[in-house]
Amino acid sequence: MTTGQQHSCALVCLGLVPYRAAWELQRRLAQARHAGDIPDVVLLLEHPHTFTIGRRGGAGEVLASPAHLESLGADVIEVDRGGLATYHGPGQLVGYPILDLRQPGREVRRYLRDLEQALIAALREIGLPAGRVEQKTGVWVADRKIASIGVRFSRWISSHGFALNVTTDLSYFNHIVPCGMPTVQMTSVAQESSAARENGAADMAMLRVRVAHHLARVFALRYVDEPPAALRELLGALAQDSVEALR
Prior knowledge:
BirA Bifunctional Protein, domain 2, alpha/beta, nine-stranded mixed β-sheet
């Protein structure tokens, strides 16, 4: 998707954010981006234990009873992204690019592949042989899925995005049919590489930097030094408490 022309982008790194709060924030940011009030935005964050079901999914993909999920402290939320059911939780790097795809050189049909490429490049930097599986969206290590992708486009503005398992408790995936694939094996950076655990490659802060770098490369983004005032206003309390600059 890179055309040589860079686009200004605010990189906003948040801590642990409840899913519904992040979803509502994406809606507000997408509206402001369409109106031209803010530049492109990349949100990087984590969520508490949450199961989400995309537009193509259904309640049958959730295998555990409501009472059991409540005992786990997990919410189940039907959302407006593409895809089926997935899990979000602590130790998972979640990225929500709010990008204006109306600009020349940006093509919706390449968007998913570019998201995958950014994650693949970041994982290969730490020695994990990440790649694609034909006709399956996401990022894989051999036949094990390490990152899920589900997106939405509204008036050519992107939202939702990817979830990369870093130190995620993978047992939570046992309570759903992940991405509609009953036999899929989910994995994480920590699980795939003992070397990653020993040398700190599974460190969330480090992976945020690497993923942000490769998102900038594939989407031709130039991160601004400070989020503009209009963006800080939309972020509200999150901007005061959790915004973290990446250099």
